Amino acid sequence: MTAKKTGASVDLSKVHNDPAVATFQIGYRQYLNAEGTLAADLPDFATERDTMVAMYRCAVLTRTFDAKAVALQRTGKLGTFPSSLGQEAVSVAIGAAMSAEDVLLTTYREQGAHFFRGVTLKEVFMFWGGDERGCKTSGPKDDFPFSIPIASHTTHAVGVATAMKLRGQAHVAVCVLGDGATSKGDFYEAINLAGVWQLPVVFVVINNGWAISVPRHKQSSCETLAQKSIAGGFEGEQVDGNDIIAVRTAMDEALAQARAGLGPSLIEALTYRLSDHTTADDASRYRAEDDVSARWKKDPLVRLRNYLVGQDWWGKSDEESLLGECKSRVNEAADAYLDTTPQAAEAKFESLYDDLPEVISAQRQWVK
Amino acid sequence: MPEVNLVGGVTMALSRALEEDENVVVLGQDVGVNGGVFRATDGLLDLFGDKRVLDTPLAEGLISGMSVGMAAQGLRPVAEIQFMGFCYSAIDQMINHASRLRNRTRGRLTCPMVMRMPYGAGIHAPEHHSESTEALFAQIPGLRVVIPSSPGRAYGLLLAAIRDDDPVVFLEPTRLYRAYREQVDDDGKALPMDTCFVLRQGTDVTLVSWGAMIKETLECADTLALDGISAEVIDVATLKPFDAATVLKSVEKTGRCVIVQEAPLSVGFASEVAAQLAEHGLMSLLAPVRRIAAPDVIVPLAGLEQNYIPKLDRILEAAREVVAFS
After folding, report:
1. Catalytic amino acids of A?
2. In this structure, is residue A188 part of a structural domain?
3. Per residue in A65-80, pLDDT tens?
4. What is this model's ipTM?
5. A29-43, A64-78, A354-368, B153-167: lowest mean pLDDT where?
6. What is the distance in angstroms between the Cα of B320 and the nearest Cα belonging to chain A?
7. Which domains does chain B have, with CATH numbers?
8. Residue from A182, A185, A183, A179 nearest A211 by CA
């Protein structure tokens, strides 16, 4: 079925000559455009070298990790892996904006956010390598592991936010989902509760253009996904997801709003999945190579590096040294992952229940 | 000692749990001001306030999913799904997340939540209000599935479910909600969730059931006693984990067994009980194991409901047959 083409929105109030009872507007936020020139006045953090360089370093680390993970999968040393190539900026900015007491709940493509919060490279390798211990992470203790089912974690996020609100904590649940997830009922149920209970939660919709093979325009006829927040009774905005300053600013504001008890937000971050959906996917079946190469011109890492260079914060030697450092860190983590002693066969029983029922414990002998 | 019916036992346990642990939170549709459509949460909002008793929007997937999030934060959510027939969008959360959270994080995050649901036929409810799909949950590793069949067991098992550190599906038979009253001491004592309850001792035949069918099963034992047949009655009560040992031990003594379930026959929990007997109790058996269940049809609307629920006569006939089997 072909998706409906919306074109310009129709103002039904004019057609029917009725007064409007509610009006809504969705803004778009961008500071650094694809050419690296400034589109708006910079927020304070963007003038701090350390803040900006820390995000850049993590974004480059994420991309280096990504390439290694794909290589390991291609050589049979890792399971199916979802690359985040091209989406590193938005993921890292989310992780960087949050405090340790906040709780992060994401889909499976948000390595950058988790790395920034302290999850180790080895742990993520382990998870995609098929070892549950990879989800016993070194990051903040209450962060959720990657959610593989789409959108079901949005309801967890509002549950986490409910707990925070009931306890009077100024903490925030940050829920990161994809464009496809906004088509699911769980998402609507979650934003509905977030609005009606004014929960301290931030939804970040990473709109990377694709839900496996289904493009954004076949997912929804809404002009923006940000406007879906209106159905939950709160504001949403669109940001350039390849502009790390825009994402970080939107996150900072949304987190401050939630911390102040002023309710939820939704940020739609426009980015692009430069890779296949996962290593088990072949995107050439459903999208043209020209479209992808055009998107490479908007690479968020290049844009950020140009900004750093323009500020005189970054030079060729810094770049070379960072690439070398990332490569050795990733290789060390990969080696550590490959050297990890596999779990004992009985491990599948050990964390099943707090108090393993005797009748199930008796089945341990089957797996010896 | 208060005299309460089964739904009263539920309320008493909820109140006790809210009182003893500030992390316990009751949530669901209409559980607050309205006190629940069956009044299971009646009065709790007044006693504990709106930070402990939460009226949620009408969204079952949300109710179970947010409970996962709350539980991971250290709360003990006790969620009510208004009827089991509306739980299916919540099953995704129970199977994909609640049951797995401890395991997939190797114990870093846990999910101490209870999902309470009225279930079963026999109260002239509208369509979708009468199913018994307990076996769906009993298949899922990581869950516990508990079904009380008396006011006292409702109290003790619900307390156990709330105190347990893992997710529990707690099914309440609507047909028994107000069937009778008994004295239940509000002593805060939980009942074990890993054992069947032997409700009546007997030597000639073992009758195994759970939930609302316990009523007909006990009536069957009473009637058999008039004929001089001594029936042992076992309430499974906790379907997962299933305490097969108690059933096997009973059948060692009686040699004969009839299993009674309200759900349709095929692939129901009675089949698991029968399989345990076939695997581990064959040498004790003096007669074929019988399953008395509803037919493999869709639960009818109220007009045909009473012909759907297995009748006492069918249980009696099966029990007499297995006793007479030489």
Report:
1. 273, 277, 286
2. yes
3. 999 999 999 999 999 9
4. 0.96
5. A29-43
6. 32
7. 3-183 (3.40.50.970), 197-324 (3.40.50.920)
8. A179
